[in-house]
Design goal:
ten-stranded mixed β-sheet, 5 helices, 14 strands, RluA_PseudoU_synthase, single chain, RNA pseudouridylate synthase, Pseudouridine synthase, alpha+beta, Structural Genomics Hypothetical 15.5 Kd Protein In mrcA-pckA Intergenic Region, Chain A
Length: 287
């Protein structure tokens, strides 16, 4: 989905270069650099223009995203669970068992391809902002254009884009705590090694409900590492129920009991604060 931005030059911007105008409109240096190297086509008064061109009051600057690559479409047989969408983003609830994006073993049955087929848009580029493991359910956000993707990725890096999770872990935890540990990926291994060096992880949690032999917790990630929740709780002796990769029992659930339940972010261009939630799926509900 290609994006077009249209701006009319004001008296205040009169005499500035296109580059300076873009900066005044909130574009980052990285975004402006992309404009210089043909990721986008820019026009001033309907004529191609470069970033060093001087503009004048009343001029019309148009930026068009270029995306000439096409992708194979398939019949749309499944409707995605869309929680919110506008021209820049689409927020969906990914079911457990579905990958976030195409991979070697999942070329057509992932959430990104499902969205492309749903829109029947052969130019739709799959741009997930973060990812969920295949067997983890919950909220995911996809950018519909490169500018939105860059701005959402920056929000994620700066901690503006936040996700909250529900998990069910084995055993009983303190009502609230912060876990600080490290994870490292060993060559040839799917699982992350706990406190064996690597990158620091900070995970906050609070217990929502105690069951007889498990507890439901709400999890907040202060860092975003692969398998941070799954490996972290297994590392302190409380693996997620159903998470066989980290030693969890499949007594009552056959996949990791983990669900992304809430996301907060700013709309990439309007800066409106968005908060979206999705309740626990049926397979994670306990009496």
């Amino acid at each position: 989905m290609n994006k077009e931005l249209r701006y009319q030059i004001t008296d205040k911007q009169n005499g500035l270069t296109v580059k300076a105008v873009l900066s005044s409109l909130g574009f980052s240096r990285h975004e402006i650099l992309r404009f210089k190297f043909s990721a986008y086509q820019m026009y001033l008064n309907e004529k191609p223009v470069k970033v060093n061109r001087v503009v004048h009051t009343g001029d019309v600057l148009v930026i068009q995203e270029l995306n000439i690559e096409t992708y194979t479409l398939h019949p749309s047989t499944v409707r995605p669970d869309i929680l919110y969408e506008d021209e820049d983003v689409v927020v969906v609830c990914k079911p457990a068992g579905m990958p976030s994006h195409p991979s070697h073993h999942h070329l057509t049955d992932d959430m990104g391809t499902l969205l492309r087929d749903y829109y029947q848009d052969e130019h739709f580029v799959i741009r997930p902002i973060g990812r969920l493991d295949k067997d983890v359910s919950g909220i995911m956000i996809y950018a519909k254009n490169q500018l939105s993707a860059a701005r959402l990725a920056a929000q994620r890096k700066d901690g503006i884009l936040q996700k909250h999770y529900y998990a069910i872990v084995e055993g009983q935890l303190e009502d609230k705590d912060t876990l600080i540990f490290s994870l490292i990926k060993e060559d040839g291994q799917m699982a992350q090694s706990f406190n064996q060096g690597g990158k620091q992880c900070v995970t906050e949690y609070e217990v929502i409900k105690h069951y007889q032999t498990e507890c439901l917790i709400r999890v907040y990630l202060k860092t975003g590492r692969t398998h941070q929740i799954r490996a972290g709780f297994a590392g302190i002796g409380h693996p997620l129920c159903g998470d066989t990769l980290y030693g969890g029992s499949i007594h009552w659930i056959k996949r990791p009991a983990l669900h992304c339940a809430r996301i907060e972010f700013l709309q990439p261009f309007t800066k409106e604060k968005m908060i979206l939630e999705k309740s626990l799926p049926e397979d994670m509900k306990r009496k």
